[in-house]
Amino acid sequence: MFVRSTLVAALASFAVAKPQEPCRILPTDDSWPTREIWDAFNHSIDGRLIKTIPIGSPCHDPTYDEEQCNTIRENWHVPEFHLPDPSTIMNPIFLNKSCDPFDPQETPCQIGAYVPYVVNVTSIDHVIKTIHFVKKHNIRFVVKSTGHECLHGTFNRNWGIVDLDA
Ligand SMILES: *[C@@H]1O[C@H](CO)[C@@H](O)[C@H](O)[C@H]1NC(C)=O
Ligand SMILES: *[C@@H]1O[C@H](CO)[C@@H](O)[C@H](O)[C@H]1NC(C)=O
Ligand SMILES: *[C@@H]1O[C@H](CO)[C@@H](O)[C@H](O)[C@H]1NC(C)=O
Hints:
The chain folds into two domains: 2-51 and 115-164, no CATH class; 53-110, no CATH class. It is 33% helix and 11% strand. The protein is built from five helices and five strands, in the order H-H-E-H-H-E-H-E-E-E. The protein has helices spanning 2-17, 35-44, 66-75, 79-82, 124-137, and strands at residues 49-51, 117-121, 141-143, 155-156, 159-164. It starts with a helix and ends with a strand. Residues 15-21 and 145-158 have low confidence and may be disordered. The protein binds 2-acetamido-2-deoxy-beta-D-glucopyranose (3 copies). One 2-acetamido-2-deoxy-beta-D-glucopyranose (NAG) binds at residues 96, 113. Keywords: Signal. GO terms for molecular function: flavin adenine dinucleotide binding.
């Protein structure tokens, strides 16, 4: 409980003190961190960096899986289906057809509107290192919102999700 509220406080104060600026870098920019830099960052936060795999990827080549794809299609409009995946924006409309499970199998799965990385923070150290990293590289970040907590965070006991947005 202590860890949880401290994490929330640390993230919330940062979010309030630093309103989003319009000119953050994008994965397509030259200054976007290289694979090596992401790996080093991942290492520094105990391997808690998660690369987004769009939820619809089993419906597309080369990761096509008919059974998984059918499950995804049947549940796509059920909000709860999207909940366990930290990088999924709840309403599929907002995904702007990024890796749409209803598109043909041969359509490439685009990362599109999904955030490229998320960090599953479990300690203040992870929070500090994440904030340091996004500031240093000028990356936009979003503390995941649950909709029913006033603070902008998804906090489940003692871990939280920080989206490193594009
Ligand atoms: C971060 O490191 C962990 C543990 O080594 C690994 O499982 C995970 O795939 C890495 N994340 C990324 C985005 O490379
Ligand atoms: C949605 O996707 C279309 C086609 O790829 C693109 O032109 C448009 O800018 C996207 N809209 C948003 C809000 O990302
Ligand atoms: C985040 O990490 C915690 C603790 O290791 C784990 O229980 C939880 O499932 C993880 N959440 C996600 C979304 O990966």
